[in-house]
Model the fold of this input.
Amino acid sequence: MQEVLSGLSTGFGVALLPFNIMLVLIGCFAGTLIGALPGIGPINGVAILLPIAYSLGLPAESALILLAGIYYGAEYGGRISSILLNVPGDAGAVMTTLDGNPMARRGEAGRALSLSAIASFIGGTFAVILMSLFGPSLAKIAVTFSPSDYVALMVFAFASLASLVGKNAWKTFMGALIGLMLATMGIDANTGIPRYTFDVPDLLAGIDFLVVVIGLFGMAELFYLVEQQVSGKLKALPIDNSFVRMSDLAKTKWTILRCSIIGFFIGILPGTGASVASAVAYGFEKRFAGSDAGEFGKGDIRGLAAPEAANNAAAGGAMVPMLTLGIPGSGTTAILLGALLLFNVQPGPMMFMQRPEIAWGLIASMYVGNIALLVINLPMVGIFSRMLTVPQHYLTPIIAVLAFIGVYSIVSNPFDLYLIIILGIFGWILRKLDFPLAPVILGFVLGGLLEDNLRRALSISAGDWSILFNNWKSIILYVCALAVIVIPALLNRWFKVKKPTLDVK
Done:
């Protein structure tokens, strides 16, 4: 503990320098704006601004503080377009659309934005505290995860999808299956054989996640608005002056705490990220609510707080293996790792002793950055929520412009512009048929991780499937996956049996 306090003292000495405070504020504000743009996300924002940070000739610690501010600022900003436009800012914000957008549509955008900001703040701060206290020890456990353990983790994540089924379990299953099918398109990494490319050269590299998200959410929302406008059913959304209430915080306090813990520990595992953390947290929280989960997916504040706390906690957790072991925990931390190497700094345990001003300065800046993000975002809730007062027939070209610019600025391939239109039509059809789109996205994200780790595990064992069940971590995850599906079903049946008895009394 004394070593941690000494390190934090050094870190705050660096982070609280006026110049570094300014960089934190710039990074947080820029990150919020980047995250709010549909599909850009933290990984692309940090990648785009890394050359600028390097070319400015900043000291290593200052450059990392700026880039980290953009990272967790973008995690904050991703909720804005998710709530207001039903278009996820990044992968971690997909689950936010489920309850955030329904709240906005019934005139509670300000309440949703302010609650999500507070949940994000608590999740991010909780993650930084745990990272300060237990980071090195937790990282050593995380790197012991084998490919078979990751397969079990993905099975657990898919089991969490059972909480999204509502009244149409088979539609959720089909949605996840569609996502898995999309994830298999492209050249097989093991055999080099093209899969489901239909002889289209542009599909050989597979479909970019950005294209799938923008197509299924952004363009599908555009087509839905056009349909409503043509049919004369387009109605103005109610003007919003709402804000988070103390009763909301009282109702969601344990949700935020539970999901912050879930998000942090999933974030530590290399290669998982905020999308897995938010999906598992949302599923867990809906299952935990039991018979009181009827409003999930219709604008329940717990369904909004859960993924927002988890994805920001996961962003902090992903920093742990990068700083302590030199192993990136996510795509964004891989870029931050590259930034460290660019400044001739070797991350790992020795960095805390050889370059404490960088390691502890970055950690301390995250405390400052989380407070800065809350201070920046809460006063802007009214400004963001007023976006809904824009007539909806003007929203269609705005969504179209954001979608096309977001895709082309990242992938720079005209074919993908046609692809988002095709996926948009497909998403609009799924929406008309009452298929949930979130399982499609989660199937796409988790499918690649599941396939890669399954094939690695089977390669290691020469095709012996027993490797998937040969250690305690995998077995625990399989048991948890089974429990997530079976226990709520048993509890619901038990309550249905008990209810008539209670009514008689």
